[in-house]
Each structure stands twice: as C-alpha cells, then as structure tokens.
Amino acid sequence: QARPVESGGGSVQTGESLRLSCDVSEYTKSDYCRGWFRQVPGKAREGVAVIDSSGTTRYADSVKGRFTISRDNAESTLFLQMDALKPEDTAMYYCAADPPFPCRTEVAGKLNAAYHYFGQGTQVTVSP
Question: Most buried residue, 24, 53, 85, 104, by most Cβ within 10 Å?
C-alpha cells in the first residue's frame, strides 16, 4: 500500500515559519483529496488542512490565516506553508491521501482525520 513521505519539520521560535513537504507521487487518482494532520502525545490526530483535485481547500480554525496548503504543478508533492508559528502548533505532522469519505468532511466541527494510511511524520517544535 502506498504511503506518503513527509519532510521539512524542525525547531523554530514563535513567529517563525516552516514549509513541510510530502511526496504523494504514488497516489495517482485524478479526483483526489490530500491533507495535513498533526498529533501530540496523548491526543487524537487532528486535521490541519485538506485540498482536493479542484484546488478547493479547507483549514482547521486554529490555523486559518497562518497556514497554506498547496501542491506542485505535477501534483506529486503536497506542501504546508506554516507562518506565524505558535508553541501550540508543536506536534508531529503527517500527510495522507484519498480518504474513504468526501474530502472536506468534518466530525464535530473538525476535519475528519480517519484516513487509512499516513506517512512516518515530521516533527515541528515551536519554542516560546
């Protein structure tokens, strides 16, 4: 089963930026949904942002106006530009693709994170 490969995490200070990348080249559906998720120890994984093949996006309320999800022209790499980072953004970040439900589905007001396969993740740490 194809799994995405995330990269670009690191340690930064409050207010700085990071850009995460995810290789999704093994996913070849023309009508797709791809997203970024994050998880901290002891908490459930949460949706951060999703994008579908039309370019329509949706963001978690906590990152709106600070994070931007995008893809390259070949649609083989997914990006997450994270600006104005806060300590509460500290988490392991994952990407995933092709969920078994419509792309912008929400559960209890939050993006559905019940995708089948995630990558190994990339750690983002934001210091005060």
Answer: 24
What does residue 88 show for φ and ψ, rounded to 5 degrees?
Answer: -70, -5
Q: Which residues pair with 49 in a beta bridge?
A: 36, 59
Residue 6: left (phi > 0), alpha (psi -120 to 50), or beta? beta
**Number of C-beta neighbours around residue 105 at 10 A:** 15
Beta strand 10-13 pairing with 122-127: parallel
pLDDT value of position 66: 98
CA distances from 23 to 2, 6, 61, 79, 127 (A): 11, 7, 25, 9, 27
Could you write out the DSSP letters of every residue in 45-65?
Answer: -EEEEEEETT--EEE-TTTTT
Q: For residue 55, what are its two tokens?
A: 């370019």
Question: What is the Cα–Cα distance from 22 to 16, expressed in whole angstroms?
Answer: 20
Cα 126 to the center of its chain, rounded Å: 17
